[in-house]
Amino acid sequence: MPNVYAVIMAGGVGTRFWPRSREKSPKQLLEIVGKGTMIQNTVNRISDLIEPKNIMVVTNKIQKPMVTKQLPNLPEENIITEPIGRNTAPCIGLAGLFVRRIDPEAVMVVLPADHIMQDEEEFRRLLRLATWVAYESGKLVTVGIQPTRPETGYGYIQVIDEDDGKNPYFQKGVFKVKTFAEKPNVETAKVFLESGDFVWNSGMFIWRVDAIMREIETHLPEMYQELLKIDDAIGAEDYDNVVETTYKIIRGISIDYGVMEKAKDVYVLRGNFGWSDVGSWDEVYRIAGKDENGNSVTGQAFLHNTKNTLVYSGTKIVATVGVDDLIIISTDDAVLVCKQGQSQDVKEAVDYLRRKQKVDYL
Amino acid sequence: MPNVYAVIMAGGVGTRFWPRSREKSPKQLLEIVGKGTMIQNTVNRISDLIEPKNIMVVTNKIQKPMVTKQLPNLPEENIITEPIGRNTAPCIGLAGLFVRRIDPEAVMVVLPADHIMQDEEEFRRLLRLATWVAYESGKLVTVGIQPTRPETGYGYIQVIDEDDGKNPYFQKGVFKVKTFAEKPNVETAKVFLESGDFVWNSGMFIWRVDAIMREIETHLPEMYQELLKIDDAIGAEDYDNVVETTYKIIRGISIDYGVMEKAKDVYVLRGNFGWSDVGSWDEVYRIAGKDENGNSVTGQAFLHNTKNTLVYSGTKIVATVGVDDLIIISTDDAVLVCKQGQSQDVKEAVDYLRRKQKVDYL
Q1: Closest of B202, B212, B92 to residue B157, by C-alpha
Q2: Are A208 and A135 spatial neighbours (Cβ–Cβ below 8 Å)?
């Protein structure tokens, strides 16, 4: 069996969850759904498969203290920091340097820190299968999500769902990728959904570290050269300086656009485990438990003549009278009142605060 | 000219302004509209007519420290406390005892502490006129409000608006009361409004202290006997005990029901000075200044795609996204989100908190 390492990407700033998410406490470090923070749940979800010493987190300097505090079982050296966010390709490449030094044939499981899965057993079954395929084939593997609606907020992956004799894993439910598709408009999304051979791009990847580093070298050769400079500095005194300098030069690009779309023979599994990337307050309401009036309350609240409303009261009490279809989020210093279905515009509030340099609220 | 004393009634608990109003800080002690608390504005409004040493406030023990603090120009002995609220008749009778000891012929101007008037000059003109009529005639005088809508939340007063030769003040715009009417239903309220000879009962009264005490003696003889016991105890050691005992016995009744409706030859002036009793958050929104989207904001707020919404942010920031017709009130420990037009149900929240004995929020 291969060595398996998890790399949890946890650098996001999560402005869509303002006023709960802040620069110092973004979405992945919050209890958004149920018990435990999202990153804690991400670690716990894979702890049957991957032991803590093999779980790495890539985050930034501001968030590192909170990450360390929330994940006390992880060795501190497993918390890798980036000086600045440069999208997923450099993040994965940086983590890959550390894994490759331990074992070039190790399998890397790359997971966002802020997704949820309702059927965790099925998720782990798929990860085990993906790990085996990635190790044996030496190819890149990703987990797609069986779509349930014509969502325009995700990229899609078209799979080859007929057995062409070139896919030794076909019988196991592992497909070859036909093509990656950008976020579609709603008409295209409907076509994708009806066609049956498209899945959502979840941002979860499984590969041998030698495979992904080779692909980065092939498709992002400049970035690869910069990563080698960091590799040379690992363990040296000037490591932080080298990383800082490198990240200033390096181009921000996603692993999807920079590598996956260009790589050959990518495998994809169909995920069907109640996945959500919990991308907005609307989505939190969608997946939350609700009472007979469609209300979902966290904290102290009194709801009178109120329907289909999400309330998070923080340390206060929230009272509602005669309202429908709202999202009400109260924190120690801010209150958000948002119409259901419009929570994508919460970022407008964050932009406003940034423009007005109200840094205490950011 | 007579001695003129003001008696400001400030005992209300104002549950309709939760979460801003609390037992210790009811509506009259808050800045609800514009600058200054309502009781401060009530005092300032009459300060051209009545000097501070002649202004008395009747309140309760819980509120007395705040009243004293907010009205530093009033002598402390002018802040009279009731051990328990017993409606307006005992309140007025108690204050009357103190005024009568100074000057039985003094004119008492009785004012609620929590009303606003947009045209304060006109209000003072009417008070001067009422004071003169009350002093000269020895009759009870009240200020009615020219109605602007078929309001069902107020009592009405029908005036005799034809000169019957029995009213020496008719030419001055001072009318005899024909009858007092309870809060009407909406059909009746429409009839009242259209008839032109009904005004709203504002709860403001002007009379010589000997006149009102005589009327109390006539129409509420039991209460009058109890008041005499208090009168005997004024200045004595057991004053507090006597008041406490008396208020346990005394019947709670309004001056309107107990005296005004039964008294003969009551005069009423037509008030036309932009009056409001600021009875609810809806009413605050109605009289507040608004921007081009119909929003009225006090404090820090960011309103995105938001219309006809009242926001009070307290020490926090409030952000709204895509909402209409709301009342949003944020305090240090509570948030209210209420649909416009339903703020009468805010008391449901207060009732809930009382039932649950959440005394910190009351």
Answers
A1: B202
A2: yes
Per CB-CB distance under 8 Å, the chain B contacts of A337 are 318-321, 323, 326, 328, 337
In a shared domain, residues A298 and A234? no
Q: What is the pLDDT of residue A13?
A: 76
State the virtual CA torsion across A297, A303, A307, A309 in degrees, nearest 10: -40
B86 shares its domain with B222: yes
Which residues does B29 contact at the CB level (< 8 Å), separation at least 6?
B10, B37, B38, B39, B63, B66, B67, B70
pLDDT tens track for A110-139: 999 999 999 999 999 999 999 999 999 999
- With a CB cutoff of 8 Å and minimum separation 6, the contacts of A352 are B302, B304, B319
The pLDDT tens digits for B198-233 are 999 999 999 999 999 999 999 999 999 999 999 999
Based on the domain organization, do B177 and B87 belong to the same domain? yes
Pairing of strands B141-145, B267-271: parallel
CB atoms within 10 A of CB B163: 10
Q: Note which residues in 317-356 of chain B have CB less than 8 A from chain A.
A: 317-323, 326, 328, 330, 333-339, 341-343, 345-346, 348-349, 352-353
% of chain B exceeding 90 in pLDDT: 92
Give chain A positions within 8 Å (CB) of B339: 321-323
Domain closes at, from B229, B258, B276? B276
pLDDT tens, B193-202?
A: 999 999 999 9
Quote the CA–CA distance of A295 and A307 in Å, as a whole number: 6
* CB contact at 8 A, A50 and A5: yes
Beta bridge partners of B160: B176
- B19 and A CB contact within 8 Å: yes
Chain length of chain A: 362
Nearest to A349 by CA among A362, A331, A339, A360: A362
Host H or E run for residue B307: none
CATH of the domain at A95: 3.90.550.10
Least confident span in A203-212, B29-38, B314-323:
B29-38
CB B250 within 8 A of CB B223: yes
Residue of A19, A328, A358 with shortest CB distance to B337 = A328
Residues from chain B contacting residue A343 (CB–CB below 8 Å): 321
Q: What residue numbers bound the domain in which B90 lies? A: 4-276
A270, A295: one domain: no
Of B225, B259, B276, which marks where a domain is finished? Answer: B276
Same domain, B211 and B226: yes
Structural domain tally of chain A?
2
Same domain assignment for residues A249 and A294: no
Of A323, A333, A342, the CB nearest to B339: A323
Among candidates A319, A335, A352 on the partner chain, residue whose Cβ is nearest the Cβ of B318: A335
> Do B302 and A353 contact (CB within 8 A), yes or no?
yes
The residue ranges of DSSP E strands in chain B, in sequence order, are 4-9, 55-60, 79-82, 107-112, 116-117, 141-145, 156-160, 174-181, 198-208, 267-271, 275-276, 296-304, 310-321, 326-330, 334-339
Domain shared by B13 and B117, yes or no? yes
Whether B322 and A302 lie within 8 Å, measured CB to CB: no
Q: Does B24 touch chain A (CB under 8 A)?
A: no
CA distances from B360 to A218, A304, B25, B354 (A): 65, 20, 13, 10
Mutate which: B280, B298, B300, B304, vs A, most A CBs within 10 A:
B304
Nearest alpha-carbon partner for B319 in A308, A350, A310, A340: A350
Global pTM reads 0.89
**B289: distance to nearest CA of chain A, Å?**
22
Q: Please tell me which residue of chain A has the smallest CA distance to B345.
A: A321
Same domain, B72 and B221: yes
* A304 in contact with chain B, both atoms CB, cutoff 8 A: yes
Q: What is the dihedral of CA A160, A164, A169, A173, to 10 degrees?
A: 40
